Amino acid sequence: MSELxxxxxxxxxxxxxxxxxxxxxxxAGGDKSSQPQDIKQAIALAxxxxxxxNMAKTISVAAGTQAKAKTKTVPYDVSEQLRTPEEMAxxxxxxxxxxxxxxxxxxxxxxxxxxxxxxxxVARDAGLSRESLYKALSENGNPSFATVLKVAKALGVQLxxxxx
Length: 164
Hints:
This protein is of the alpha+beta class. The chain has 6 helices and 3 strands, in the order E-E-E-H-H-H-H-H-H.
């Protein structure tokens, strides 16, 4: 198991392993405060992966075949990883710094944070309907700047400017 540090805001960690030339992401971890718990969870995931691999090998040998074990994947939802206001602000700041020209990406980032906080509550706080908020912050949404400002305020984050 290996750890990748992402030096943005409070710093984030991704735990991964390599199997047969493939990189397998085990856990998109939190910041330094959750590191010991994240490491334990990633180790448990790596052990489970190893046990599944060994079981698949045993089954294929017993059956006399060399069938590849199927990998089950699940969609990754970043909103499940945004637990604190600091993580939410760091996530939005990373989008603003790394992709300042990607208006759709920044809107999606606001949507990720809104889902993490609860879309209904954010919509109420922003004075918008939940449906219009989902639409504005969706992949194909195109929110007005007024909507972006309302949502940012409802999320408790601030947009900052500095000289380029």
